[in-house]
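Hi team, as promised in this morning's meeting, here are the two structures we talked about. I've kept the exact order from the run log so nobody has to guess. The first one is mostly here for context; it's the second one we should focus on when we meet again. Sequence first, then the predicted structure tokens.
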Amino acid sequence: MPRYLALSCALIILLLFSACCANRKEASTVDYQSVPLDHEFTSSELAEMNNSFAFKLWQEIDRKDQNMFLSPYSITTAMGMAYTGAREKTAKEIGQVMGYPYSPAQQHLVFKKSRELLDIVQSRKKAQLAIANAMFSAERNKTRSVPEFSQILQDSFLSELKYLDFNKAKETADYINNWVEERTNRRIKNIVSEQQIAQSNDGLVLVNSIYFKSEWASPFNEEATGEDKFYTSSKRDEDQYIMHPLMHQTDNFYYARVPEGELLQLPYEDYDLSMVIMLPDDIDAVSAKLDKETWLNWMNKLNKFSKVQVTLPKFRLEQTLAKLPDTFMSMGIKDAFDSDRADFSGILSLSPNENLYITNIVHKAFLEVVESGTEAAAATQIGFAVTSAHPVRPQEPIVFRADKPFLCMIIHKASNEILFMGRVQKPSLAED
């Protein structure tokens, strides 16, 4: 049975009610970039928005000597749904931190365009790239939901809308968890708890999930995989290593040497998708200064097709980020989590002594990298060898040996948008 590279990710924003005093919101004037409703958003514009936030968040959560994995696309999309219903100062804070330049009335069009670009990949059926959004709301909210918000969720986010009995907390939590599991091939489990639903006071839950599964365009041969040293320090200190299965292959790939280290791009069977691996000279230094400008420089340099001898570990990463409210507050989103000052009046129409605010944000992600290959991937290899039409002098292959800590990004090449990003400090394998 062939094995695959599979990734999945889900984010939950749990919005809850709380009894609050009247006149709780601070009025503010919010200036947004305004564009005509028929404005054509470009792929680079969309990627810049999402990537900028990705690197800001990375600086907040990256931890020295630890594995890390997340989907910035999933987080920005789920927060985008919440932003659509935010107003005044709450909307301003979310927009500034997330990098949304447009008002809640227009920002959703950016996500609609981004979704359309990624749906093209799914339609070709060379890779699975399944994105799903949903709003799970208490039955009581049917008559209190703002119609425009529900319509935007359906039109721009293709979101499902489900009204559930939040008084039956276990059944509701089970329903939401099963929904996420089904859309992530059972990789993401128990993302919402019975306690959260029980304490929500007829609130609602916004969910984004993204699931990716694909074969490499140039697969690794399983017979070439063998146990070897993986150093847990960038300097390859001899007293800091583990024995781990390392995969090997030699083929033509985009490769570049930059001041920070080495870059390699491994394409998937659908050539709109690839994994970019940064093998830094110093993982902590590079990770600490990772930003939009550095990323753009890397991608600009990654333009030379070379014969590369690749060594890469098999690995599996699982990540849960359960303290994102604290992270977002430190980044500048404050009112959204305050039961008195939050303004999500674009979501529900409530009485003066009620308010809607965010209490929980949970992000879970899964990544597994193995040797994978099928006949379709082998056929793609033939098309990949375009350099055979332009003979060059024989040369020794470049050695790219990822046997020490590295960064990896799964990107949509047509837009340069980062769908997943991670840090492999100490690889581990799936349990048998």
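And here is the second protein, the one for discussion:
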Amino acid sequence: DWLQCQQLRAAAFLPTEPYEEEFDNKDFCMVIHLLAKDNDMPVACMRLSLVSVENGGSIHWGRLATLPSSAKSRLSALNAITDFAQEYCINFGFKKIIGEVSDERLIRYWEKKGFLLSGQPPIWYGDRAFMPMYKTFE
């Protein structure tokens, strides 16, 4: 399953991003990899990284990739994996999810999922700015 995650990330990001940016050697450092399948076909993946255990715990969502396909099926895969990731985080007692978004069109999606822009300066990777976001749970 991990190799399928890597293949999905490569298909989604390598056409536009440098290899070193996407494959950052952090895939085995306190992480969980999620893989969503549709009829045994991998359609989305995400990397969850432990950030802190303080104050109930924080986890970072990153390396979210969907199979290049129709917009409707990509949205369905995106919703499925993010909904599962949220339930996973809640079940394990995490109180805060952090992440970044580089595509301004996706900010609205994440806001609908309850995420807020942190107000922190963007994080720059290459020539792209990633806006820090977060979501907290009671």
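Starting points for discussion:
Helices lie at 2-13, 19-22, 71-91, 104-112.
The chain is about 35% helix and 35% strand.
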